[in-house]
């Protein structure tokens, strides 16, 4: 075979090898095979000096061009992460495709979004406050006295004597009222922390949504109207509610809101512990003592507040039986939410 034919056949063989490259280790093999010391091309190049003068120039040029061509093509393949896209002949169309999983919104985030959206529709705006709070905002300005059980080390995470992880979202009420004059109409979603034994019903980190409306002439009837609108929209139009007298240091009067069990239609089932009712939030009229702390004129303004546990609401609505499920990141749960 003439040197010229030899070069052509090396070029053809190289092209065939390159077409079937699947991995970067194969690229290395091909490099050794076509450019290594024992490769046919190296042999051709070595023989150039012995060729008759008229062929020396031509063959030398062709062989060097091929060497450059091979080097360039191999590094081009390597630059596309060493794997060449298989051509049609090598592509197995019957292989299953790679499924790209779509991310989901966490059920807790989703519940917060749904609740907030309903209150946006009723003119509320979002307010936020820090997770790490002072005793003043979390307790004192909310009229929670020094000897109140919630202040016990057993129930509250203390950072220092005076700094704690907030045990509820109610301190956002105080911060908002300090920074603006009435009318105030806010909801405040966020994380809360309590030093509790972890169980199916309670976790040390959980979420609440707080609500606050202060203006001239706000009454308990307004509170009832807003909560009734929320209940029907979130739990369904047939849901009934009742307000049960209760006590919170920062509201007077205080109440808890129960709704008819949407699972059994209030007939009585394990979810509602056979009572037909489910408790979903605490609420009341802002205690005038709280207005004194933030410098609002309690003769002039009245207001209502409410607070609900997000995990509880989400568990009720979606029949999740254990609060710890929200923090396990088990895809079988998470994938059920859009
Ligand atoms: N902060 C209370 C809790 O964590 C819930 C609550 C009750 C908030 C009544 C309120 C309210 O705003 O008016 O148990």
Q: Can you give keywords for this protein?
A:
BirA Bifunctional Protein, domain 2; seven-stranded mixed beta sheet
Task: Provide structural commentary.
- It is a single chain.
- With 338 residues, the chain is α+β, with helices and mostly antiparallel strands.
- It has two domains: 3-90, no CATH class; 107-334, 2-Layer Sandwich (BirA Bifunctional Protein, domain 2), CATH 3.30.930.10.
- 38% of the residues lie in helices and 19% in strands.
- The chain is built from eleven helices and nine strands.
- It has helices at residues 3-19, 24-35, 40-47, 53-79, 107-120, 135-138, 171-179, 220-235, 288-294, 310-318, 331-334, and strands at residues 125-126, 132-134, 163-165, 184-193, 205-215, 241-248, 251-260, 277-286, 302-309.
- The strands form two sheets. The chain has a seven-stranded mixed beta sheet with strand order 1-4-5-9-8-7-6, with helices on both faces. A two-stranded antiparallel ribbon has the order 2-3.
- Strand 6 and strand 7 (251-260) form a beta hairpin.
- Helix 1 (3-19) packs parallel to helix 4.
- The longest helix is centred in the first third of the chain and has 27 residues, at 53-79.
- It starts with a helix and ends with a helix.
- The model has no long low-confidence stretch (mean pLDDT 91).
- The structure holds 3,4-dihydroxyphenylalanine (DAH).
- 3,4-dihydroxyphenylalanine (DAH) is lined by residues 168, 170, 210, 248, 251, 282-284, 305-307.
- 3,4-dihydroxyphenylalanine is lined by residues 168, 170, 210, 248, 251, 282-284, 305-307.
């Amino acid at each position: 075979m003439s040197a010229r034919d030899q070069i052509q056949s090396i070029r053809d063989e190289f092209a065939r090898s390159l077409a079937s490259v699947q991995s970067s280790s194969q690229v290395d093999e091909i490099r050794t095979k076509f450019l290594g010391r024992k490769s046919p091309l190296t042999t051709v190049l070595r023989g150039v000096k012995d060729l008759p003068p008229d062929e020396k120039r031509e063959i030398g040029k062709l062989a060097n061009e091929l060497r450059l061509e091979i080097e360039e093509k191999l590094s081009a393949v390597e630059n596309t992460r060493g794997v060449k896209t298989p051509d049609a002949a090598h592509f197995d169309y019957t292989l299953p495709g790679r499924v790209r999983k779509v991310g989901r919104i966490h059920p807790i985030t989703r519940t917060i979004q749904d609740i907030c959206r309903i209150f946006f529709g009723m003119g509320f705006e979002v307010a936020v406050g820090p997770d790490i709070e002072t005793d003043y905002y979390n307790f004192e300005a909310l009229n929670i006295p020094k000897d109140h059980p919630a202040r016990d080390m057993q129930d509250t995470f203390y950072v220092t004597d005076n700094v704690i992880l907030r045990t509820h979202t109610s301190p956002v009420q105080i911060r908002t009222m300090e920074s603006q004059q009435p009318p105030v109409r806010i909801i405040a979603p966020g994380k809360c922390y309590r030093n509790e034994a972890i169980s199916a019903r309670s976790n040390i980190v959980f979420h609440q949504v707080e609500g606050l409306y202060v203006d001239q002439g706000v009454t308990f009837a307004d509170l009832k109207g807003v909560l009734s609108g929320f209940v029907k929209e979130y739990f369904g139009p047939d849901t009934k509610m009742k307000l049960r007298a209760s006590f919170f240091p920062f509201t007077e009067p205080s109440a808890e809101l129960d709704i008819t069990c949407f699972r059994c239609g209030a007939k009585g089932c394990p979810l509602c512990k056979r009572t037909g009712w489910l408790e979903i939030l605490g609420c009341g009229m802002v205690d005038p003592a709280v207005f004194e702390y933030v410098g609002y004129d309690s003769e002039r303004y009245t207001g209502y507040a409410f607070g609900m546990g997000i995990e509880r609401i989400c568990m009720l609505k979606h029949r999740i039986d254990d609060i710890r499920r929200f923090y396990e990141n088990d895809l079988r749960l998470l994938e059920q939410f859009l």
